[in-house]
Amino acid sequence: NAGVTQTPKFQVLKTGQSMTLQCAQDMNHEYMSWYRQDPGMGLRLIHYSVGAGITDQGEVPNGYNVSRSTTEDFPLRLLSAAPSQTSVYFCASSYSYGGAEAFFGQGTRLTVV
Amino acid sequence: KQEVTQIPAALSVPEGENLVLNCSFTDSAIYNLQWFRQDPGKGLTSLLLIQSSQREQTSGRLNASLDKSSGRSTLYIAASQPGDSATYLCAVSIEYGNKLVFGAGTILRVKS
For residue B61, is pLDDT > 70? Predict the structure, then answer.
């Protein structure tokens, strides 16, 4: 059972480049979300989706774009990478009812130089 | 705005000690509280999930309690082992659909 799979695990970008972080889940979860983790700050919500075709912004959405064309996949796009986007990115999924357990991927460590 | 605080930020104990990690949140309108473990360079592993209607959950040497009215949760680890060394994160679910607000974590080191 794969759970939540993120690719790549590591990435180095130059300022201004764009890229897509991939996230896939095989648990038929409606709710998917992206977080970033910075030292001393815990995880912060970037974007989330409650189902295919429905996305919304979280706490720190600027510089990121998402779409949800299928239940399984929820890619995160960096439009023009900046050093401030150096972080560890986590994708999570759960059923959409309040109180559902959240499952996380292994993370993508991104460095923007 | 919901804020989650974890105390202490770091903790170092000798093997075998019982220990308590604390988590507090500012708004009692939560759906659940989840404790996670994170090893260096790794993802988050769910340890315990407490629904808002529950008072505690137990798994092996771990016991988590929830006092929603006072905005507090504790994670109790019995007979700590070096393998328990990790960062422990708590998170509260604040909306239908499962938005999570995280604390900054407690870094635990258990010395052998």
Answer: yes
How far is A108 from A5, CA to CA, in rounded Å? 10
List C-alpha distances in Å: A90 to A42, A55, A113, B11, B30: 12, 17, 20, 25, 22
How far does Cα B39 stand from its chain's mean position?
14
Q: With contacts defined as CB-CB under 8 Å, which chain A residues touch B33? A: none
Token reading at A24 = 């896939």
pLDDT digit string, tens, across residues B68-98: 999 999 999 999 999 999 999 999 998 766 7
Chain A residues whose beta carbon lies within 8 Å of the beta carbon of residue B102: 35, 42-44
The three state secondary structure string of A77-112 is EECCCCHHHCEEEEEEEECCCCCCCCEECCCEEEEE
Contact A23, B85 (CB under 8 A): no
Closest chain B CA to residue A58: B99
